[in-house]
Fold each of these.
Amino acid sequence: MSDIQLWTLVFVLITFSLYIFIAYRSRVSTTSGFYVAGGGIPAPANGAAIAADWMSAASFISMAGIIAFAGNGYGGSVYLMGWTGGYVLLALLLAPYLRKFGKYTIPDFVGDRYNETARLVAVVAAIVVSFVYVAGQMAGVGLVFTRFLKVDPTTGVIIGMAIVFFYAVLGGMKGITWTQVAQYTVLIIAYLIPAVAVSAKVTDVPIPQIGFGTILAELDALQTELGIPEYTAAFGSTNMLNMLLITASLMFGTAGLPHVIVRFYTAKSVRAARYSALWALFFIALLYTTAPSVAAFSKLQIIEDVNGTALSDMPSWFNTWSEVGLITQADGSAISALPSDATVGYGDILINNDIIVLASPEIGGLPAPIVGLVAAGALAAALSTASGLLLVISSAVANDVYFKKINPQATEARQLMVGRIAMAGAIVVAGYLGINPPGFVAQVVALAFGLAAASFFPILVLGIFWKNCTAMGATAGMLAGLVTTMAYMLWTIDIYGNGEGVFGILETGFGTIGMLINFAVTIIVSQFTPKPSPQMQELVEEIRYPGRTELVAKHAQGDVH
Amino acid sequence: MDEHQRRDYWRRNLRLMAVLLVIWALVSFGAGILFVEPLNEIEVAGFPLGFWFAQQGSIITFVVLIAVYVVRMDKLDAEFGIDEYEEEVHHS
């Protein structure tokens, strides 16, 4: 066993035991504990949990690589702005009001504020979005286990499933939340240590956010030499229209994702919900401002190490990652097909986005324990997001379908049991999808944001801020947004047709257009359909003011329709 | 709160939101995308300024915006005597 494997094993064992210990300490026995941790999580802890929930395998493993390699460098800014800017919308437009409304799930809000048809559409959308996402997380777990511990991906996914099963089924939202706090701590330490070390080594500035400024000119020059647009050049890989649309789609999608919104229900009060959003974005920003620096340092190092180097002289990270097929020739064929004395140029090889962060300690020449720590961090990121998504699925099934539709007389113990069974079932399905990922998962994850923006965001905001928004308006708007966005995506996406689209709008940016369509349809249809009941209008008015009110209390008992 | 106070509270909340959202759009869509090219002519600590806004400045501003929001809302709540947070009802 190599040093790297040994250290990875040590860190994985330590962190996994920690998660199991926390889960055992926070077992629950009520539905409120299972769905929303009893609404009693302090704001900083809730913020850390939201951050861990939010930052998935994609943020931790892939994002820096996407910034460095998918475009010229500036092009990746859509993810940085999009996935953080959405929190401003959440904090100002949704979190405090949804918390005041006080329910368990997004379909709950949609069903209570509008009607049962709208609830059903919301349930289906929430489940689809969450499954798509969770498959990606499980695949990420498999990747880490394969590379660092040399077990096959299936075993890796099964180990991951077992851990999540233990703490999610036992502790529900309470177990998940406290475990996520621990997972955030692990993942942020694992991300920051190598970034700080590399920045200090290359530039003498130990703050990566500042340090990478000093290498940008060099990077720009190198890319020009290689015939790629400069690293910092505006619109080097994506034009202005698409930069705007994709950023907006990611922002509004973030504010419409069920597994994020549900976290504000776990806050103690409206005030705590506001503070949770602040803590969450602060914790997320620590990683998101570091990612572009990891991207820049890695790209510089990689170009310098690889470009014009003979294969026999390649650094060891190049060989380990080309063995697992994540570094290939530009046409996708294996590096080993080349003669060992061949000299490769940067343009001759293809480096998978996913390895930048995982390989960054090796590329930067850092010692084995740090490599092991990064592996544990990647697992923390994947598992924390997976558990949050699984909770959305199980609460949608147990609360919105079973309790609200099938058996409203169910006792609390029975609801809890259905919740746990749904959770177990969801874990098995997620594991299966992780082991046998459908070919289009990667594309669909990016598209999920567009779908969330086009379906949920407008009707949530209008439901809160516009008393006269009607049930039929919202249902029509949601369907119009969802259908146009899906149709455009199917029309343009590579696997279905390769259409050029309209005005060259990329499918990842179309969610913004779908959202505008949703807003327009909801508003227009609301003008011509019966207004919400006076009591509902009063309730919508009530949630504008924090503090205890009679009507919201009555609503919580189920007496307002 | 009587009817008049409620309207006042809500109007001030909306005004704060509007100001913060304008800044939100200016730093991201504005400085990070629409005006990125002229801003890139200016260089600070090695960063072309537009590029810096797109990858660092906008994110930092977002955190500050939410911080301003929570503090101002706390003040607004206090002014209108809202302090029963901990007794808010939860769920059916």
Note: DSSP finds three helices and two strands in chain B.
Amino acid sequence: MLREIRPAIVLLLLLTAVTGLAYPLAITAIAGAIFPSQAQGSLIEKDGKVIGSALIGQEFKEDKYFHGRLSATVAPDPNDSSKTVPAPYNAANSGGSNLGPTSKALNDRIKEDVEKLKAENPSQPVPIDLVTTSGSGLDPDISPDAALFQVPRVAKARNLREAQVREIVEANTKGRFVGVLGEPRVNVLALNLALDAAAK
Amino acid sequence: MTAIGWFQIILFCAVIVALVKPLGWYMTRVFNGEATFLSPVLRPVERGFYWISGVDEGREQHWLTYTVSMLLFHVGGFLIIYGVMRLQAVLPFNPAEQAAVAQDLSFNTAVSFLTNTNWQNYGGESTLSYLVQMVGLTHQNFLSAATGIVLAVALIRGFARASMRTIGNFWVDVTRCTLYILLPICIVYSLFLVSQGMPQTLGPYVDATTLEGAKQTIAVGPVASQVAIKMLGTNGGGFFNANAAHPFENPTALSNFVQMLSIFVIGAALTNVFGRMVGNQRQGWAILAVMGVLFIAGVSICYWSEANGTTALQALGLTGGNMEGKEVRFGIVASSLFAVITTAASCGAVNAMHDSFTALGGMIPLINMQLGEIIVGGVGAGLYGMLLFVVLAIFVAGLMVGRTPEYVGKKIEAREVKMAMLAILVLPLMYLGWTAVAVVFPPAVASMANAGPHGFTEVLYAYTSSTGNNGSAFAGLTGNTFFYNLTLASAMFVGRFFMIIPAMAIAGSLAQKKSVPPSAGTFPTTGGLFVGLVVGVILIIGGLTFFPALALGPIVEHLAMNANTLF
């Protein structure tokens, strides 16, 4: 048995060096060379400043922007570090609500949001993804239905015709991968950037 | 449920079945020590490793030596992870200036990665430095995966060999597995993931100013290199807290599909390695068929339940299923499929929050883990877990006809059956035992995030997941407390090693036996009758063990949900 001790130490160190250092560092170098934008986090810059990542959702509250999904992410409470406070779209601490199907808190929240949205647009059924939190709290997408649902509000806030806004939504709607995988979706940040660009 | 949803499920199964044979062929060559197309490059490296570490390639080990080597290897691995976590504040690659990780959390995380569980009591981006992610976690992802695979191969050798005292050399197997199988696939795979949008950088977190003028700090890091092995090695520990639900850890529907494939592919191919090594590939296909039956049943129930949503949602006129805790780019079907795959294998990565699944939708992952993660299973662990059930099924069949049972030419006798029973019984002892303790211990009860039966399910899920070395969670439970850090670690430890050691004992005892040629009285183990028998034994043992616990959790919650009772 004693002769197994040397490989246990030496082989472990060798394999650690290969898989824990050489491999990730080599991939970092190669990825940085072939896919520089993705490797950095698909960042979007405007006027030389980073305004976000194409893959990470951000919070929109103003009427003139399309809103993303609800986010359950939190941040440490500035007054008491042992507690947390809600901080939607906190991209340094991802997470979901973790509320179960029979949770009163969850069902009350959904009920309240459904009523708010019904008041905003009584003509369409409320899309489920607008009243539920995403798994990561950073979902960059909404369903095409959820985007179309918000068209009247956005058009009114921007003094645009609804048809015009709807066109921009459709131009930013992505289908399933090769028609099969995933779900159709609209990237909220891309959509809002397109709206701002159209306004100019 | 939609036609395109079912098509995604069928497509997944078809691709896995298509990959089983070629990968099984390649892996068999690697473990038989034969040359492969990578040998011209890797063989010199491999020989160099043996030379430096004093390993004699030609010397094989008895099962006890093999097991002790594995344990020694793990002690070293534990020290490395624990050390870098405690010292991360003074070590390099720490741009976010994370402080040293607490003792109990470091202990829990070290055990967790060592045992291939990857339970996340840590929050990746908010707790760990890049060095810990690479040297601690990425490296251990490789080694715990390699260990699982080689143990399964050692057990296969036990079945395949006759009248031999040895079952291979642990050091050679681990080195070859890492160099020839895991590393080459991961290099290609991680570059693919970067192309889909997964970050791979050592730079600091990015500060952005959003369109509405708010500040957003975006966590990045060397994500792709870790996620590749996290999936391929069925480890599942996330780079980020939200794991594969995080858009950086799973950017597109395509990355999601490939991640699901990579969870299953090695485990599925090992059934083919088994068939090849025992000299009849149909033996491997029969085992894969058992896994397939249980898998399809689980996926169907989970998808149906999630697509239906809850009674409360339907009452509000909301259609489109239960989207709480799910991401739009995956939707209902890819989230349900992922949940079943990750718990059928012992991966534990999640692309949706299992805690927010419907009662029955969340019960399927729980059952998958309680059955011992034998549906494809963790790399290696799934196969040896399944072979334990096969031993039992064969024993039961033997009892029915009053004949000494045989499997692939080996007589299954008292010692094998005792060892199999030990491994199978120790799992429920851990997850039922600790759950019972936790629900009567007030500080442990305080960790539950949901009231009513769902809170109970959170605790049961936590111990089931850690005993099964899965690592997925009903994540509402606050697991990072002294009580849970220690008890969950003990469940992970017992769940891993009290499964491995009996399995290795069986390997050693089988390898010594003579091979019995099949006769007219031999029970054929390649047909539908055998598949049905094994499925039956699994469900009976499973059902008897954990049905009462499920009745207190998800089943009662489902009834409450239908009666519109909220907690």
Note: The longest strand of chain A covers residues 49-53.
